[in-house]
């Protein structure tokens, strides 16, 4: 079944993955390749390995694609460098040598970065005109310093100018072009391939979106996964042959016998996750192994040139005859990032400089300034210790991936895009408060801390390990724009937490598909005298969605939101529900459901994803929403009604000074508020004692004990022992009939009053958030007091490219070239050309396949 890619909520979404295999590229494709390495940083001990990548792709694709269908642009004179020292730019473990001549003749060189950006944008626009007309593919290759978002830098210290993925989409000019972008992998060997760069193009991968997300989440959850693998739940441990009494004495098998095997296993797990679960991630060479072809595993069978044919072309290059020199001080194993410490350190410092220069809103508070000072200290150290480098590697991988996670969650759940910006560009610095503040705390608790190398016992750069929570801030801001009550916000975070559980489960299973991980796990278990399984065994069923192919459609069918087109290619998503009575159209908003189950009485997540509609959930009785400020006794009420929280009074007229007993001046409002509060508290209490939610706040617990005397014993028992009770017949989790009201307040136009219906004694079924156990509100990390003074509105990017009209860019580029776009000859006079995605033409020289 074909999927339709959409910017939000449709198709597979972002299908980015890391691979060493050359993607399946049609011989009819249009190609634009860019090398951003400047001449002063082109040495093999710096950024020279990007030049080798550039020439490697040119070797494979240069003679395969039509001559007029490819554009090769460079920031330095590559031909001159190769002629002077060809062995300085060998590629791969087999050290293939590039020779000047035909390989380097048609590379266009532009030293000024601004001019090169214009030519790059113009070349994309010119090529798009052709590939869209004939339904061909567009392939963009960037070799040089990049980001996980596939932005491109030009090797200078100020990171200006630069090309963002937003700029590339602007140059393409539409979101329905079949475009693929290839950039270097940032945390392993190989290349990052995004075959779904334009989200509205037809695309039909082999795996569901959660599979891609398990790869894209990298080592975010490395700490919990390492903890699980090295515990009694290790998939390679034969638990049936372990003395049960031994498990009760120690938490970890072999915990008191730390060994080199344990360290090797932990490092292997971290490295594999950071490499996006790509195998052989220390070998920066093309892989021609058809049995381990990531493209075939993830996307589809190859329709064009096979890996064997690519290998035949590659092996025409000579190999270097000089002995291989291995740097004993290298930071990474293998030949990644140049294979020597100097080039690998240059790559690591690029990641740090990028974060300091480009991440908006991260370094403005006290904690951020302290972390920035530590990063700068590392940058000024010309020869940092290996352990310091490893700490930086682990931290930068998780921080960079978390920013991508923010984008993925906003895209997956069809949320409003905060300020129309990507997570890394978002410069909102206001501390979350009130209803979103509590949700922010909950979201922060959902994101684990950074995993560290097991030998890292002294945390020299400890301040950089403290999370900056930009990802949580970004996602919660998006949620706050959509939902106006705390119940819906908590439920939304619960759905996100459930998604995290699915991703961790998928990552664990993918890890043990790697023979290297299985072998290191066997060695560790053998070293601590534990029984070993021949194949991994998992203690819980695989967490999966009921309809995994429709994962992006977990947004409720009644959910609608109006938002402007964003600057990074995300289109408007207006969904209107027509009022059959009045004939009017109104925007509907409601909580999404991405849950894969609810906690059972034992604290485990049941193996099921609930994908429901708004009409299938029950209604919350709470009217309006409350935003608390930092001053004692103050509360701001949004909507027409309010509730009493922690001794603060919420009135129907906005802000009022609360009293210690929470008494309102208006008797009617007070009675209404008391009723609403009691209903909401009873729902939370019932959900808590039956195990549908893990915790309740201290304020809610106190109110529940006062207002619900019939639940007092169950509440105290749940708090003290963790035991739950079976729900009464009226609250049993059965399929909800259409007559039952939504679990959350209807959020139509912002500011409308909320109405409730239904039995007040009923509790929610699926609508409750799965809240972290032992939740303690985290520190605001120094953000307090920065909300009003530090709200930057800076616009990133080169003004010449970020806001330019694509048509104008094309006209300028053509004028600079003094030529007009030329169709590659075999297109002349062709009429009904099929898309290359469904092309069945034979492989070979494209010049002879369709020429008339």
Kindly describe this structure.
With 852 residues, the chain is of the alpha/beta class. Among the domains are: 208-279 and 359-615 and 776-790, no CATH class; 618-765, no CATH class. 34% of the residues lie in helices and 6% in strands. The protein has 23 helices and 14 strands. The chain has helices spanning 48-61, 78-84, 102-105, 113-133, 165-172, 209-216, 222-229, 244-249, 260-274, 294-298, 307-314, 341-358, 366-380, 386-412, 434-446, 470-482, 486-511, 515-527, 667-689, 698-707, 712-721, 799-802, 806-817, and strands spanning 3-4, 17-19, 30-35, 70-74, 107-109, 138-143, 179-184, 191-194, 202-203, 576-578, 585-587, 625-628, 634-638, 655-657. The strands form four sheets. The chain has a seven-stranded mixed beta sheet with strand order 2-8-7-6-3-4-5, sandwiched between helices. A three-stranded antiparallel beta sheet has the order 12-13-14. A two-stranded antiparallel ribbon has the order 1-9. Strand 6 (138-143), helix 5 and strand 7 (179-184) form a beta-alpha-beta unit. Helix 4 (113-133) crosses helix 23 (806-817), helix 6 packs across helix 17 and helix 14 packs parallel to helix 16. The longest helix is centred in the middle third of the chain and has 27 residues, at 386-412. The protein starts with a strand and ends in a 35-residue tail after the last helix. Mean pLDDT is 73; it is low at 1-11, 545-673, 730-804, 809-823 and 825-852.
What's the topology here?
Elements: E1 3-4, E2 17-19, E3 30-35, H1 48-61, E4 70-74, H2 78-84, H3 102-105, E5 107-109, H4 113-133, E6 138-143, H5 165-172, E7 179-184, E8 191-194, E9 202-203, H6 209-216, H7 222-229, H8 244-249, H9 260-274, H10 294-298, H11 307-314, H12 341-358, H13 366-380, H14 386-412, H15 434-446, H16 470-482, H17 486-511, H18 515-527, E10 576-578, E11 585-587, E12 625-628, E13 634-638, E14 655-657, H19 667-689, H20 698-707, H21 712-721, H22 799-802, H23 806-817
Parallel strand pairs: 3-4, 3-6, 4-5, 6-7
Antiparallel strand pairs: 1-9, 2-8, 7-8, 10-11, 12-13, 13-14
């Amino acid at each position: 079944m074909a999927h339709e890619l959409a910017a939000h909520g449709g198709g597979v979404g972002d299908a980015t993955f890391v691979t060493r295999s050359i993607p399946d590229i049609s011989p009819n494709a249009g190609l634009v390749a860019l090398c951003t390495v400047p001449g002063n940083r082109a040495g093999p001990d710096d950024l020279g390995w990007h030049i080798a990548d550039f020439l490697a792709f040119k070797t494979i694709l240069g003679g395969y694609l039509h001559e007029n269908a490819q554009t090769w642009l460079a920031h330095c004179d590559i031909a001159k460098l190769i002629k002077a020292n060809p062995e300085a730019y060998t590629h791969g473990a087999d050290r293939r040598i590039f020779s000047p001549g035909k390989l380097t003749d048609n590379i266009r060189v532009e030293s000024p970065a601004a001019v090169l950006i214009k030519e790059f944008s113009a070349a994309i626009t010119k090529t798009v005109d052709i590939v869209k007309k004939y339904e061909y593919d567009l392939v963009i290759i960037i070799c040089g310093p990049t980001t996980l978002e596939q932005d491109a830098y030009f090797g200078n210290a100020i990171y200006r100018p630069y090309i963002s993925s937003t700029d590339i989409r602007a140059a393409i000019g539409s979101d329905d072009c079949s475009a693929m972008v290839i950039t270097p992998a940032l945390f392993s060997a190989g290349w990052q391939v995004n075959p779904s760069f334009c989200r509205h193009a037809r695309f039909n991968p082999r795996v569901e979106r959660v599979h891609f997300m398990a790869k894209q989440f990298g080592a975010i959850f490395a700490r919990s996964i390492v903890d699980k693998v090295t515990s009694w739940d290790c998939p390679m441990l034969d638990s049936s042959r372990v003395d049960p009494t031994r498990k009760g004495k120690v938490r970890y098998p072999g915990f008191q016998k730390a060994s080199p095997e344990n360290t090797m296993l932990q490092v292997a797990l971290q490295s594999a996750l950071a490499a996006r679960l790509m195998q052989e991630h220390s070998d920066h060479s093309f892989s021609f192994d058809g049995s381990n072809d990531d493209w075939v595993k993830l996307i589809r069978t190859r329709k064009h040139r096979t890996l064997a044919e690519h290998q035949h072309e590659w092996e025409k290059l000579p190999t270097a005859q000089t002995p291989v020199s291995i740097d004993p001080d290298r930071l990474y194993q293998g030949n990644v990032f140049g294979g020597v410490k100097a080039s690998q350190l240059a790559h690591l410092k690029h990641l740090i400089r990028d974060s300091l220069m480009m991440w908006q809103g991260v370094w403005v508070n006290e904690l951020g300034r302290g972390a920035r000072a530590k990063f700068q200290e590392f940058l000024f150290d010309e020869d940092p210790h290996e352990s310091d480098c490893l700490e930086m590697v682990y931290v930068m991988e998780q921080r960079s991936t978390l920013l991508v996670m923010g984008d993925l969650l906003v895209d997956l759940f069809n949320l409003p895009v905060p300020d129309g910006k990507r997570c890394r560009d978002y410069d909102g610095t206001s501390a979350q408060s009130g209803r979103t503040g509590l949700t922010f705390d909950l979201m922060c608790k959902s994101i684990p801390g950074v995993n560290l190398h097991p030998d890292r016992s002294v945390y020299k750069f400890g301040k950089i390990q403290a999370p900056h929570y930009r990802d949580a801030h970004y996602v919660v801001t998006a949620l706050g724009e959509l939902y106006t009550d705390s119940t819906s916000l908590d439920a939304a975070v619960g759905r996100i937490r459930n998604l995290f559980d699915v991703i961790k489960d998928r990552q664990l299973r993918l890890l043990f598909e790697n023979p290297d991980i299985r072998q290191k796990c066997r060695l560790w278990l053998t070293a601590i005298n534990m029984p070993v399984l021949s194949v991994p065994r998992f203690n819980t069923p695989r967490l999966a969605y009921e309809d995994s192919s429709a994962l992006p459609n977990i947004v409720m069918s009644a959910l609608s939101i109006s938002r402007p087109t964003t600057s990074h290619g995300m289109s408007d998503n207006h969904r209107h529900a027509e009022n059959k009575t009045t004939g009017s159209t109104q925007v509907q908003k409601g909580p999404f459901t991405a849950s894969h189950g609810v906690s059972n009485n034992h604290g485990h997540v049941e193996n099921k994803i609930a994908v429901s509609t708004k009409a299938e959930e029950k209604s919350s009785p709470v009217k309006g929403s409350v935003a608390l400020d930092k001053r004692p006794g103050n509360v701001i009420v949004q909507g027409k009604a309010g509730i009493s929280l922690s001794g603060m009074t919420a009135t129907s007229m906005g802000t009022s000074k609360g009293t210690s007993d929470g008494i309102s001046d208006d008797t009617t409002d007070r009675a209404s508020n008391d009723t609403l509060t009691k209903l909401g508290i009873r729902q939370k209490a019932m959900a808590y004692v039956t195990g549908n939610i893990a915790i309740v706040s201290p304020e809610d617990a106190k109110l529940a004990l006062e207002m619900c005397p019939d639940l007092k014993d169950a509440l105290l028992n749940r708090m003290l022992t963790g035991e739950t009770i079976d729900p009464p017949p009226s609250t049993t989790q059965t399929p909800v009939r259409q007559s039952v009201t939504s679990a959350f307040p209807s959020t139509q136009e912002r500011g409308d009053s909320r109405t409730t219906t239904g039995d007040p004694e009923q509790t929610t079924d699926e609508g409750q958030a799965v809240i972290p156990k032992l939740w303690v509100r985290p520190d605001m990390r120094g953000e307090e007091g920065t909300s009003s003074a530090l709200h930057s509105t800076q616009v990133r990017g080169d003004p010449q490219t970020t806001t330019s009209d694509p048509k104008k860019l094309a006209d300028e580029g053509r004028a600079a070239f003094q030529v007009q776009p030329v169709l590659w000859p075999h297109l002349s006079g062709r009429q009904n050309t099929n898309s290359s995605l469904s092309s069945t033409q034979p492989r070979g020289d494209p010049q002879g396949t369709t020429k008339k």
